[in-house]
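Tutorial handout. Part one gives the primary structure; part two gives the three-dimensional structure as tokens.
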Amino acid sequence: MPKTVLLTGASGYIASQLRDELADRYDLRMLDVRAEDRAGSRVPGVEVVDLIDPERSRYASLFAGVDTVVHLGYKRSGTGGERGIDAFDVELENVRMAGNVYRTAFEAGVRRVVMASSNHAADWYEHALIHERRKEMVFPDELPLSDNFYGWAKASYELLGFPYACGIFGRKIEVVLIRIGAPRDVSGSHYEGEVSEQHTGGTGLSNFKRDLGAHLSPRDLRQLFVRAVETPDIERADGVPVAGRLRHLRQHAGVLVPGVGAQRAGLCAGGRRRGQVRGGRGPTAHRCEREDRRRSRRRLTLAHATRSIRRLP
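Part two.
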């Protein structure tokens, strides 16, 4: 019997890269405030629900019998000023939405919540320290400090999950936090147009460098969320089932993945168990190690490429 997975924000851009994979693997329920994607095409199977609504009884039944909630829901400001001071009110609504998701999942007996966060939850480190060459990277055990309300909201999603995970309300919800970086096309032509048309402010070159460092391919995005749903043991040494930005987790290219939980489950970087048979060729422990080394070399190659770009005028 497949797991029942509830996907919020199901008509959105990130969900468009996940829907088919999740539908193939699980009994998938999909929610969004609209039933059409960005292009105006209808997304079959999406139920229109507003999860910001404080009257949770209006959508509580949709959480019944769900094993895992994957929360991608997000309300845009509609002004193009997601990083400005006026973004607070809308981002506060997004925090309330995340709170409603956690609370409704708790009351429905949901086992796990996979919460989409963002590397913008640590924007202050990047803007104030990394760009000034005073810091090389953000580490998982550092406080989520953002210099904008978009990142503040993402950090709030992360912190909201902890009371539910520690069991203070009577039972523990397993919480997986994923900081998504740049899940989009990073070909050079994308950065040659007007800066106003690009994803972030700054120059085309700076945007290109940043997205190279945080790039996440559609394949990797699918694999990451599948592992977030399926990794069986994410409990930390202190007994709290949290995997993500909080302690004991690894951060790769702006994306947070379960660290201790994945390690304890015996997973290699490709998502397989160590020793699992693949293609009838016997145990794969050594192949997993080789795959890990290849991925490490690719990350180093990317780092060298980024440093070379940094030296360009």
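Part three, for discussion. The chain has two domains: 4-181+216-265, 268-313. The radius of gyration is 20 Å.
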